[in-house]
Amino acid sequence: MEDHELVRRAQSGDDRSFATLVRRHERTLYATAYAITRSQWDAADAVQDALTDAYLNITALRDPTRFAAWVSRIVVNRCNGLLRRRSRVVPLEEPPEPQAFVWDGPEDGIDLMRALQSLSPDHREVIALRYFRDLKVDDVAAVLGCPPGTVKSRINRALASLQATLSRDHSAQEV
Amino acid sequence: MNCSDVRDSIESYITDDLSDTESAKVAAHLAACDGCATAYEETRALVAGLSGIAESFVPRERFVPERPYAPRPVGGWGWRIAAVAASILALLAISALSVPAIARELPLPLAREIDALEQTNETLKEQVDELTVRLETIGGVEVAIVDTAPGDVAPEVAEAVKTLAMDFVRAQYSGDLEALAAMGTQRLRADLTAHPEDYLRARDAAVVFAQMTEPVDAGDGTFLIFVRLSDSADWVDSQYQEDFEIKLIDGVYLVDFMGMDA
């Protein structure tokens, strides 16, 4: 069943449909929140709060086909709110904290994630929405409240920075 | 298209977000330019890598959104409770009668609720005997009362709260806004003035009180009661639910909040 149908059912009070939506989206929402907050526990808090918001306000979503962007926006807002309240610095050298999630991806994916964490907040945000949440540029623009052109150029710059970081890391390992 | 234009379009080209014409131009340039072709390959690998790790984060524990509970922030609490209660009471009404003292356990964390709903049938079978439902005559009408929180409030308080909820519903069906206002707190009266349509029901329809919960003392001077209703001649089960928050003010019970649920 597609997302929009599950949303319609959830809006009618069908909690099983909402649960299915949660299961379908939680990994990529978590990845997005982790990319933005750079802390597993902050990410878990942000996603948890965002899912509560989504559950309580699901009837406010007028266009069910927009669920992916809508819930992404809630997560981003929660992450940014959390970051504003905290000044915690997470050392970049540390590998992902082992407690909050199990890594079920490719070995070199951890290097990629670490490289992503070295980017600026704006770049991490746009990369996560575009590739983790698989949103179109227009949807990313809607989530972030900026023009699509800004999103495009931000993505290009973010990818270039990421490429440079990976090349640098690779060179350092060879030395 | 020069190299700069192509570099700006590579990401959109990879994700298939260019028009056919633009895409053809980029492809033609990549076929002829080694520098851009290398940039394309690097970006393509990077995008594939990022997309490939999107699903790699498996939460060790299922997300459990917490529902904030009392003390109630002004204006924000009642509907949250009502949202949870609605699904639970609907469950009671439709499936059987279960979950003892459920109102005391509100608010349920979402994941627990979802898991519980996923096991609904088994749970209901096991717990169906633990909850009592009795017929009670309130104001001359016989209503099924679900003992969700037996003994939580004194009998005279329970009767006053139940009677008020039923009178309120009757006034809704008779279209009597003055009577509704007289039964409400200042907060409710303000909402009634702003959105009278939220309170009025099908005029003179034959309302049936299908079920009510025992009132619950929320601990801050508020009593919660959930009423399942029907106004259909084809009634086989309750059609919808009204969730009430009732306060005792200067010796008079008044409705502070009424929300409608499916």
Can you give keywords for this protein?
heterodimer; A: 175 residues; Rna Polymerase Sigma Factor, Chain: A; 73% helix; 2% strand; B: 262 residues; Nuclear Transport Factor 2, Chain: A; 7-stranded mixed beta sheet; elongated
How would you describe this protein?
With 175 residues, chain A is mainly alpha-helical. Chain A has one domain (3-174): Orthogonal Bundle (Rna Polymerase Sigma Factor, Chain: A). Chain A is built from eight helices and one strand, in the order ααααβαααα. In chain A, helix 1 packs across helix 2. Among the domains of chain B are: 3-52, no CATH class; 132-261, Nuclear Transport Factor 2, Chain: A, CATH 3.10.450.540. In chain B, 45% of the residues lie in helices and 20% in strands. The N and C termini of chain B lie far apart (58 Å). At the A-B interface, helix 2, helix 3, strand 1, helix 5 and helix 6 of A face helix 1, helix 3, strand 1, helix 4 and helix 6 of B. Strand 1 of chain A pairs antiparallel with strand 1 (57-59) of chain B.
Measured by DSSP, the beta-strand proportion of chain A falls in under 5%
Named CATH architecture of one domain in chain B: Roll
- Approximate strand percentage of chain B: 15-25%
CATH superfamily of chain A: RNA polymerase sigma factor, region 2, helix turn helix motif
Helix content of chain B: 40-55%
Largest sheet of chain B: 7 strands, mixed
**How many β-strands of chain B, per DSSP?**
8
Enter the CATH topology name of one domain in chain B: Nuclear Transport Factor 2, Chain: A
In whole angstroms, how far apart are the ends of chain A?
Answer: 51 Å
Largest interface: A-B, 49 and 40 residues
Q: Could you list the spans of chain A in which at least 5 consecutive residues all have pLDDT below 50?
A: 88-96
